[in-house]
Specification:
heterodimer, A: 362 residues, alpha+beta, Cytochrome-c3 Hydrogenase, chain B, four-stranded antiparallel β-sheet, three-stranded antiparallel β-sheet, 9 strands, 14% strand, B: 148 residues, alpha/beta, Beta Polymerase, domain 2, five-stranded mixed β-sheet, two-stranded parallel ribbon, 3 helices
Amino acid sequence: MIMEKITIPIGPQHPLLKEPLSLRISVSGERVLGGELRLGYVHRGIEKLAVSRNYTQNVHLIERICGICSHVHTTAFCTAVERLLNLEVPARAHYIRALLCELERIHSHLLWAGILSKHIGLDTIFMHTWHDRELVLDIMEELSGGRVSHAVNKIGGVRIDLDIGHAELIKKNISKLHDEVEKLLEIIMHDSTIKARTQGVAIITPEEVKQYGIVGPIARASGVAVDFRSDDPLPPYDRLNFKIITQPEGDAWARTVVRIQEVHESMKLCEQILKVIPDGPVEVRARRSVPTGRVIVRAEAPRGELFYYLRSDGTNQPARLKIRTPSLPVLEILTKKLSEIQVADIPVVLAGVDLCIACADR
Amino acid sequence: MNELTIDKIISDINSLTKGACQLVEYINDELVIEIPSSQLCKTIEFLVQGHESIHLSTITIDIDNSAPDYIHALYHFWENISCSLLVKLDTKNPELDSIISLIPGADFYEREAAEMYGIRFANRESTPALLLPDDYKGAPPMLIKKEK
């Protein structure tokens, strides 16, 4: 029987979506024929706003690009400014930045694992992962006073220092999390429902990774070992040991396995940082006016390569700030992946790539 | 496949563009090579076909107020090193060749450049709005001068 083609609008506000995004999906019966998407519903014009604010104000503006990876955004921005200032940031500050980056990665990956689980009907896993994520949020709240926006970074270093109490809390919570993540990985590797819903769904090939400039865990789940913590490391990643996790399959299951294994690696990195963090100051004084010049900084956000281009004209305000977040290339391939699948797989495809619309829209 | 090295990329692009390319500067460790806009597609095709794991990070459009006659378009690539191709466009006629046939992932970057800076892209059907509303009628937002 030939089924009529129907277009279903999803969003910009829809229970399926956690952030505003407009999708128009064409279906014929239970088969999805294709999709179109429209961005811009949380576009705040941050690149334009940045050139009318001074560098200190911009640290707070940049922090608000994303509610999940706010710290890595300010890390990239502050690093860019510090490079133009030729500023020697204390080593201890670099380690504290990296610690927060890894905690943010754990929190982002667990949050995503919960959302994916909910979309495939496994509410128990959703509850567990979000419960486990609280352990990390508790650490971040204790360290910075904020669970989402941490305001840890400043130009020239960080505004917090670690004490023995912080270190004890991190060790205690990470130790609890190790056991929970081990169980979660066991379920993902062997649960027949998860495998049935994710294996073979929305396969991204290494060739597509290159064509679309896909980065982060999605590229690594397609067997492409790109990770800017090792490819172009910001300090102190050049002095830390960690494994780049890859899977060859390229499907939603591989993306799940990569992210959960990365949670493990990030926890080990947190423990390593606590062991090797040097004593000393956590900030140096920075001049307000930044010398003329331009700089590029790449950092590994939870979703992959975060790109910052900054040009200074010698004043206390940037002349140009360009931000490319890792969600943008993923959104480009998403519509391609929304074809020749079943309607029931739409949530898995959408959730499986870990979109951040706030980051993409800026 | 060849690994990207600074010397090799400069010599390769130099021979490809028959000496029309120019090493502009290093942005910290990042290599910036200026090429004529007519050589853009050819150079990018060479980079993409000759290097298995190269990817386009983004396209940055930048206008330096000290040289307002030109709009700078920077194509940022990454393999094992960072390499940016710089193309200078005439402010009065900012037009570039589209590269989406070579790199499909450049679609969003070109659309953003078109709506935010008014760059026109040849060899593609259209550049639909990416971030701005469909009924936006004003000037490209990044070209609007600061309010006093």
